[in-house]
Structures are given as structure tokens and as C-alpha cells.
């Protein structure tokens, strides 16, 4: 499923 | 990953290590606000709820574990370690965390990105918790700044800790600017505004920290 792009940051 | 974000993560890591170094080696938490440390533990706990469900990279997972582990162990040291807890000055650390947490929770329920990411599988609860952690992180330093104003002589490690903690989010702002120009539709107003507010809260600390460094005098915040 698509993941919120922002979540790749700490 | 870009240089600003890596520098930001390393600065953040360094701030945590400086604090752990201070507490673990000289067994003292003088001048450190337990309230801020507890707020940071809540920030990481609510931000990394999906640590086991959404895997991004070894680096990402490792850093999340480090931040979770260090923030909770700092709280443990300051609350329960028989020597460290004696140096905690609770009379100077009177900021009530709930007056920060409740507004952030309400704001997170009202303003979050779930509405723009409808197709995303992330649950509404995770979205709200993640947004809550962003808002809370922006204001989590307030008890520490209030305590610094009351503590007359701020020791070097405490000053460095707060400086690094403020610098990391400033570097993240550069990272967001960089990503905005290099990745199409990378727009995250909520993160950007809370990150900007967070950094602005350090403005006067940065000023006095720079002055003390330039004039080579002890760091002191006006009451």
C-alpha cells in the first residue's frame, strides 16, 4: 500500500 | 537523503549523546528539565508507532530505536537513578506538560494531512498521532527554556545540548527547502510550519548562546 511520503523522515 | 537532512539527524543524535554523556558520566542532570525529556519521549513514542509496520531503511529504523531508547532512558535516569535524581531541581521545573499536550492533540485532530492523502493506507489514528508528535515537538523545549531562564549558571553541556537540539530542526528546514525544489509535489505545510515555529522558539537562546561564545563569557539568559 502507498505510504505517506513524509514518513521517510525521522 | 540529502546533506541537510543527514546533518540534521547527526546533530539531533549528537544532542542526545551530549545529554546522555552528561547524565551518565558526571551522574548529574542539573539544569535539565525532566518535563522536556518526558515530552520528547512522548514525541518519539507517538511519531514512531509504525516502526514495525512501515520499514523504510536500516538507517531509519536504527535512528528511531536510538531516539526511542535514549529519550526513555534519560527519563528513567532522571526519575529513578538514585544519584542522578538527586541533582534534579524540580522546584525550577514547574512547567505543566498538559497545557502543551492537550492543545497539540486537539490541533492534531482538527488539522492533519489525512484529508489530502485519502488513498493512503495509514490509519487515521496513526495520522493524528504522527501530527500530534510534530506539534508537540515544536513546543517540547519550552519547559527547558523556562528552566534555563531560572537557572543562573548554565553549565556548558546543558547549553550545548539545547543548542544542538535547536540546530537540528534548523537544518531540517534547509532539507525541506532542498526537497521542495528537487522533488515535485513535495509540499507539507503542517511539518514546515511546526518546524519553523520550533526553530523560532530557539531564536533568543541562539542569540545569547552566540553572544556568550563570541565574548567568551558564561551563557546566561535574561530572566
Short account of what is shown:
By secondary structure, chain A is largely without helices or strands. The termini of chain A are far apart. Chain B contains nine helices and no strands.
Describe the protein:
Chain B: One of its GO terms (cellular component) is endoplasmic reticulum membrane. Chain B: It is found in: Endoplasmic reticulum membrane. Chain B: One of its GO terms (molecular function) is ER retention sequence binding. The complex is a heterodimer of chains A (about 10) and B (about 220). With about 10 residues, chain A is low in regular secondary structure. Helix content of chain A is about 0%, strand content about 0%. Chain A has no helices and no strands. The termini of chain A are far apart. Chain B has one domain (about 5-210). In chain B, about 65% of the residues lie in helices and about 0% in strands. Chain B is built from 9 helices and no strands. Chain B starts with a helix and ends in a 9-residue tail after the last helix. The model of chain B has no long low-confidence stretch (mean pLDDT about 95). The interface of A and B includes residues 1 and 3 of A.
Q: Which percent range describes the beta-strand content of chain A? A: under 5%
What's the shape of chain A? elongated
Tally of separate helices of chain B = 9
| Shape summary of chain B | globular
Helix content, binned percent of chain A: under 10%
Number of DSSP helical runs of chain A: 0
Distance between the termini of chain B: 40 Å
Give the helix/strand layout.
The complex is a heterodimer of chains A (10) and B (223).
Chain A: no helix or strand
Chain B: H1 3-25, H2 34-47, H3 58-80, H4 98-110, H5 124-139, H6 142-150, H7 156-182, H8 189-201, H9 203-214
From the structure above, extract its key features.
heterodimer; A: 10 residues; little secondary structure; B: 223 residues; mainly alpha; 9 helices; transport (chain B); transmembrane helix (chain B); endoplasmic reticulum (chain B)
Amino acid at each position: 500500500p502507498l505510504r505517506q511520503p513524509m514518513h521517510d523522515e525521522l | 537523503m540529502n546533506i541537510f537532512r543527514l546533518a540534521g539527524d547527526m546533530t539531533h543524535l549528537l544532542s542526545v549523546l551530549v545529554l546522555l554523556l552528561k547524565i551518565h558520566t558526571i551522574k548529574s542532570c542539573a539544569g535539565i528539565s525532566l518535563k522536556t525529556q518526558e515530552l520528547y519521549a512522548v514525541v518519539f513514542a507517538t511519531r514512531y508507532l509504525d516502526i514495525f509496520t512501515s520499514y523504510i531503511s536500516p538507517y531509519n529504523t536504527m535512528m528511531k530505536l536510538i531516539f526511542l531508547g535514549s529519550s526513555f532512558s534519560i527519563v528513567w535516569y532522571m526519575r529513578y537513578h538514585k544519584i542522578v535524581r538527586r541533582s534534579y531541581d524540580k522546584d525550577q521545573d514547574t512547567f505543566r506538560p498538559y497545557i502543551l499536550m492537550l492543545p497539540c492533540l486537539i490541533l492534531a485532530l482538527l488539522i492533519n494531512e489525512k484529508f489530502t492523502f485519502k488513498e493512503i493506507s495509514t490509519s487515521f489514528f496513526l495520522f493524528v498521532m504522527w501530527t500530534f508528535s510534530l506539534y508537540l515537538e515544536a513546543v517540547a523545549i519550552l519547559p527547558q527554556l523556562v528552566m534555563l531562564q531560572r537557572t543562573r549558571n548554565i553549565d556548558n553541556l546543558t547549553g550545548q545540548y539545547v543548542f544542538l537540539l535547536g540546530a537540528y530542526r534548523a537544518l531540517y528546514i534547509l532539507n525541506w527547502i532542498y526537497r521542495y525544489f528537487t522533488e515535485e509535489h513535495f509540499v507539507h505545510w503542517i511539518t514546515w510550519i511546526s518546524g519553523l515555529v520550533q526553530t523560532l522558539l530557539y531564536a533568543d537562546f541562539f542569540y545569547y548562546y552566540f553572544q556568550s561564545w563570541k565574548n567568551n563569557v558564561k551563557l546566561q539568559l535574561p530572566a
